[in-house]
Each structure stands twice: as structure tokens, then as C-alpha cells.
Write a structure and sequence with these properties.
Blueprint (H helix, E strand, L loop, with lengths): L3 E4 L14 H11 L3 E5 L4 H7 L13 E4 L5 E5 L3 E6 L4 H18 L11 E3 L4 E4 L7 H7 L4 H13 L3 E6 L3 E6 L4 H12 L6 E5 L17 E4 L3 H22 L1
Parallel strand pairs: 1-2, 1-10, 2-3, 10-11
Antiparallel strand pairs: 3-4, 4-5, 6-7, 7-9, 8-9
């Protein structure tokens, strides 16, 4: 069985920008008691705290948990407290180029957005995220805006022609994430390999956007075994299965 289970966050462990529910928190706690876990997603550190860490049981084995915000451009590890091991921030020139490119692409995309809740563009230091309906849009609106990803696929195709030095991927329910080229979830997985000293073959990645153009897709490039899920409920079933299998193997070894 695997030594490290890696999860995406939004759409995989929880609804978009929502907290994990009690059942998911309990399952993650059970998993962390028997195997190392990593969570890698487009959100920044505060989002991981609000969505996951604040909801885990008090005695969760955090030493077995690695957090990789902004698609792996940052890495947090727990040793008595959470420590930032690295971050791959944009230069001022890179940031300016991305922001200058986004505006005309948005104008030409004909996205048919009726209302925006909050800012559409968020600078996360190591990642710039475009959220079509705004950062604070209600989930009910987000779910119906681009369920087949077609609107964002066209935007990614257009942005890729201009932003050749960057990695661009679809994330969440309405978002597009832009990071430095080569600094994506594949980069994060290789960092996990290096820092945790775990081979790629001993890892499993679970995500909802493993399709081409999705921000989970770079994980496939590493050769890691992947499981595509449609939502958090499907992820729960996978975690339950892994926990049972690992416990069974552990008992047989004893």
C-alpha cells in the first residue's frame, strides 16, 4: 500500500471554499493516524486553515500532514507549529505581465457574467487566481456557471498563447490558476518526494480536476497513481477503503 496519500482540496475534500464537514474531518483524522497525508490546492494558507485545520480533532497527528498552498508553490510542515519551508513568489515583472494579459482576455471571452461577488483577481504571491464570479460568490451560483469547464478551457487556451512562461490551469468551480512554469502540482509532488523521502510509486493522488487543462492534471506527469473523483462524497468512500486496507495490512504484519 501507499506511504503518502495526496489530496486536492476544493471539489475533493470539500465544496468550493467551504469547510470540510464533520465526517470528512473524522476520516482525515483516522487516515493521519496510520499514513502520511498531503493536501495541495490553489488556495492560499489562510484558506487551508479555515477549510481544514480548524475542523480537525484536537489530537490529530499533524506531524503526518503536509500542506501545499497555491498549487504547490508553498510548503508547510508541522513541528510543534506550522512552518513554511519554501515559497516561489512572482517577480514584479511577472506579476505585471499576468495582470496586463488577463484584462484583454476577459474582455474578449464573452463570459456572460450577470453579477460579481467580490474581486475577480486575487494575487496570492506565488499564484494569481481569476475567479469568474468573484472570490465571495455563493456556491449555488458557482456550480451552474461552468459545470463542463468549457468556458475556462477557452480562456486557458487564449492565455497560454500570451503567457508562455507560466503554467495555467482550471481550478475550483469558477477559477483559473496561474503560476510560474514548472511550479505546479507536479512540482509540489516532487517536493514531497524530496522532503519526505518517499518515492513517487509509494504515493497516491486524489483529485477532481485530473483532466487535461485541470489544475490537478500536472500530477499525472510525475507518474504518481491517480484517482479522479467527482466530489467529496466519493473521496470519503476512497478514504474509508484506504483506512480499512492499511489497518488490515498492519494487523497482518503484527
Amino acid at each position: 500500500m501507499k506511504k503518502l496519500i495526496i489530496f486536492d482540496l476544493d471539489g475533493t475534500l470539500a465544496l468550493s471554499k467551504s469547510a470540510v464537514d464533520q465526517e470528512m474531518a473524522r476520516l482525515l483524522n483516522s487516515l493521519l493516524n496510520i499514513v502520511k497525508v498531503a493536501i495541495i490546492s490553489g488556495g492560499d494558507w489562510p484558506q487551508f486553515v479555515e477549510q481544514v485545520l480548524d475542523h480537525l480533532p484536537k489530537k490529530t497527528a499533524l506531524k503526518n500532514l503536509s500542506i501545499l498552498p497555491t498549487c504547490g508553490t508553498k510548503f508547510y510542515q508541522y513541528k510543534k507549529d506550522w512552518k513554511l519551508l519554501y515559497e516561489e513568489n512572482f517577480t514584479l515583472e511577472e506579476r505585471d505581465k499576468i495582470l496586463r494579459t488577463l484584462t484583454p482576455v476577459l474582455e474578449n471571452a464573452n463570459l456572460k457574467i450577470r453579477k460579481i461577488w467580490g474581486s475577480q483577481i486575487e494575487d496570492r504571491g506565488s499564484q494569481i487566481t481569476f475567479s469568474a464570479l468573484g472570490q465571495k460568490a455563493p456556491l449555488t451560483e458557482k456550480k451552474v456557471w461552468d459545470p463542463d469547464f468549457e468556458k475556462r478551457k477557452k480562456m486557458v487556451e487564449s492565455l497560454s498563447k500570451t503567457l508562455k512562461g507560466f503554467s495555467i490551469g482550471i481550478g475550483g468551480t469558477t477559477s483559473i490558476d496561474i503560476v510560474k512554469r514548472g511550479i505546479d502540482k507536479a512540482y509540489g509532488i516532487r517536493k514531497l518526494q524530496e522532503i519526505l523521502n518517499i518515492d513517487i510509486g509509494d504515493m497516491l493522488f486524489v483529485g477532481d480536476a485530473l483532466f487535461k487543462g485541470g489544475n490537478d492534471h500536472p500530477a499525472r506527469e510525475t507518474g504518481v497513481d491517480c484517482i479522479q473523483v467527482k466530489d467529496a462524497e466519493e473521496t470519503k468512500k476512497i478514504i474509508e477503503t484506504i483506512v480499512v486496507l492499511l489497518k488490515t495490512i498492519s494487523e497482518k504484519v503484527k
